């Protein structure tokens, strides 16, 4: 796999950093998640392929163990508020001195500088600060965040993983590590570059929810079907729009021009009425194989069995029977091989990882009895 041999230490976080770590693990990196001790509960649902070490970083001995892990690693991924790592004596100045090849990735909401740098926040706040949230929502309604997809995952976890891969690539030339300051505000904004750079086209001149691509246009929206499901319509170009009209059984001559914005409300009413006359399956049968750009709106439970996704193997079932998306993109020679086993328990790999990183058995036992580390091997659970 592309990232085989890359050793990553990920400090346990909420959602974006776990996703970043999972991407790296999916593509072959050996990711160790460092969890808290004292019966901490994991909220990491993105733990595929990771190992877990439970380590108390509030204790200087725990900090020393952590430093030893970082000396032998390629990447450190930390998701804490600005200043937290420095307070523990684990800032980049300390760790890069000990391991100049270390890639020190800091994934935060607001970045490492600026007046918000130390503020708590979540996806919706970062999205708001990126400018994008102001554009998201229906006409005459308040802004709506599209789940926590844009800042946490696209602008956060994915962008940070990209930064790490870039830094690894650069390190192969320079031999040096570096610090990555991944701000979810900036990552989200960057993902939204199209919005800034397409303003000159007039694509966003109308209020929120009244533009062509934000549900303003009737040919770029969803429609309810007779069985309470939905179809997605994205028939922008005239040749594709013609196929939409044909599939709906409408006659062009009876309809206003596609780009007559003042007629969009009437056109939407027509589409709404027609879509409501057939089931999703019936519409899918009509539009499949055409260029009308009309697809069923599938639920998470349905995507796996759609013939197109099945053919490509776009979703896979792990050993627990849980279905997840296959890692993307697909590389022809060194594709990702996502782990099919269950997620790790907190501290499940403490002992084996410390051994791997050169700790003696006696040292491990000492750390264990001092409560610096916790071990939770599966054997002990039986
Ligand atoms: C919208 C998303 C977030 C969605 C997440 C939800 C899915 C989950 C959030 C809460 C979960 C529920 C909850 O946990 C209760 C249940 C638990 C149960 O197990 C499951 C069900 C639950 C209901 C559970 C269900 C779900 O999982 C949840 C609902 C986001 O937007 S995520 C993006 C958030 N933002 C960032 O990541 C930006 C950067 N980070 C930050 O700004 C801050 O970290 C943050 C997120 C604001 C949190 O701030 P906080 O004050 O808590 O922490 P920090 O200031 O960063 O400091 C960290 C402290 O931890 C110490 N520490 C770290 N590691 C160790 C260690 N190994 N040992 C000891 N100590 C450690 C560190 O020293 C810091 O200590 P200090 O505070 O003393 O400095």
What would your notes on this structure say?
- It is a single chain.
- This protein is α/β, with parallel strands linked by helices and 382 residues long.
- The protein has two domains: 7-192 and 320-374, Crotonobetainyl-coa:carnitine coa-transferase, domain 1 (Rossmann fold); 220-297, formyl-coa transferase, domain 3 (2-Layer Sandwich).
- It has 16 helices and twelve strands.
- It has helices spanning 16-26, 60-71, 84-87, 92-98, 123-130, 149-174, 184-191, 193-197, 212-216, 238-247, 264-275, 280-287, 307-312, 350-356, 361-369, 378-381; strands at 7-11, 30-35, 51-55, 75-78, 103-108, 178-183, 220-224, 230-234, 294-296, 315-317, 323-325, 373-374.
- The strands form three sheets. Strands 6-5-4-1-2-3-12 form a seven-stranded mixed sheet, sandwiched between helices. A three-stranded antiparallel sheet has the order 7-8-9.
- Ligand LNO2BQTQ binds at residues 11, 13-16, 34, 36, 41, 43, 55-58, 79-81, 84, 87-88, 108-109, 120-123, 148, 152.
- It is an enzyme of class 5 (isomerase).
- It holds the Pfam family CoA_transf_3.
- Residues 309-343 are annotated as: Disordered.
What's this entry about, in short?
The protein has 382 residues and is of the alpha/beta class. The chain is 37% helix and 14% strand. A hairpin with a 5-residue loop joins strand 10 (315-317) and strand 11.
Question: What proportion strand?
Answer: 5-15%
* Strand line-up across the major sheet: 6-5-4-1-2-3-12
Bound molecules: ligand LNO2BQTQ
Give the N-terminus to C-terminus distance in angstroms.
33 Å
What is the rounded Rg? 25 Å
In N-to-C order, the SSE pattern is EHEEHEHHEHHEHHHEEHHHEHEEHHEH
Which CATH top level class of the largest domain fits?
Answer: Alpha Beta
> Which stretches are poorly predicted, pLDDT < 50 over at least 5 residues?
none
Structure class:
alpha/beta
Q: How many discrete structural domains?
A: 2
- Specify the CATH homologous superfamily of the largest domain: Crotonobetainyl-coa:carnitine coa-transferase, domain 1
* Count of DSSP-assigned helices: 16
**Average pLDDT score:** 96
- Please name the CATH architecture of the largest domain: 3-Layer(aba) Sandwich
The strand count comes to: 12
| Assembly state (oligomeric) | single chain
CATH topology of the largest domain: Rossmann fold
**What spatial form do the alpha-carbon principal axes imply?**
elongated
**Biggest beta sheet attributes:** 7 strands, mixed
| Helical residues, percent | 25-40%
């Amino acid at each position: 796999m592309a990232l085989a041999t890359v050793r990553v230490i990920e400090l346990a976080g909420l959602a974006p950093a776990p996703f970043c770590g999972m991407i790296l693990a999916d593509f072959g990196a050996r990711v160790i998640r460092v969890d808290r001790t004292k019966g901490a509960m994991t909220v990491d649902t993105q733990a595929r392929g990771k190992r877990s070490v439970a380590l108390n970083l509030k204790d200087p001995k725990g900090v020393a163990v952590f430093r030893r892990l970082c000396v032998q690693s390629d990447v450190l991924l930390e998701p804490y508020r600005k200043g937290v790592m420095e307070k523990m004596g684990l800032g980049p100045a300390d760790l890069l001195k000990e391991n100049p090849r270390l890639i020190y990735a800091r994934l935060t909401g607001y970045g490492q500088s600026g007046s918000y740098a130390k503020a708590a926040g979540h996806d919706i706040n970062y999205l708001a600060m990126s400018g994008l949230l102001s554009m998201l929502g229906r006409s005459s309604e308040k802004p709506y965040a599209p789940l926590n997809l844009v800042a946490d995952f696209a602008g956060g976890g994915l962008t940070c993983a990209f930064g790490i891969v870039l830094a690894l690539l650069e390190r192969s030339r320079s031999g040096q590590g570096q610090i990555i300051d991944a701000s979810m505000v900036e990552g989200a904004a960057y993902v939204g570059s199209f919005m800034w750079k397409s303003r000159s086209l007039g694509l966003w001149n109308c209020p929120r929810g009244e533009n062509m691509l934000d549900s303003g246009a009737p040919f770029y929206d969803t429609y309810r079907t007779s069985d309470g499901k939905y179809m997605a319509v994205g028939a922008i170009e005239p040749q594709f729009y013609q196929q939409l009209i044909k599939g709906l059984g409408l006659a062009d001559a009876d309809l206003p021009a596609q780009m007559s914005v003042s007629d969009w409300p009437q056109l939407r009413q027509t589409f709404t009425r027609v879509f409501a006359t057939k089931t999703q399956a019936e519409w899918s049968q009509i539009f499949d194989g055409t260029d009308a750009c009309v697809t069923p709106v599938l639920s998470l439970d349905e995507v796996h069995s759609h013939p197109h996704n099945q053919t490509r193997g776009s979703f896979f079932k792990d050993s627990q029977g849980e279905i997840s998306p296959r890692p993307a993109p697909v590389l022809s020679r060194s594709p990702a091989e996502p782990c099919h086993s269950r997620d790790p328990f907190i501290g499940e790999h403490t002992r084996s990882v410390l051994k791997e990183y050169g700790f003696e058995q006696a040292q491990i036992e000492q750390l264990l009895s001092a409560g610096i580390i916790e071990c939770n091997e599966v054997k002990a659970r039986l």
